[in-house]
Amino acid sequence: MGLGSTAKKIQLVSEKAEQMYKQVQELQGRIVTLEGAVDETHDTVTDLEGDVAEQRALLEAIAADRGLDVDAILTEAAIEDADEETGSTASESGDDAGESGDDADESGDGAGETGDAHATSESNA
Question: What is the pTM for the complete model shown?
């Protein structure tokens, strides 16, 4: 009886070892695939960073050609971004309640911005 019980235990251990081996093989395959995807993503990001640098250089050249101060524009944009982040935090806490109605009629004529502002912006284009 002791040998039969031992044989069953050895068989169970062997089956578990085979299952674990299959899982390890599967994980190795997934890791290799993941490494390939990471390498491709890295290459893509590197290419995009180069493209962005080229576009920035072109935009700075255009801005300089038109007499615009690039540093001042970037500073203003950073300030606006910070204000928007602060504003979204304030709106989440309810601090800016009532501001939504102020923007609808900036001209004060009671007409809102239904068509006049759109027509004006089209004629300026």
Answer: 0.49
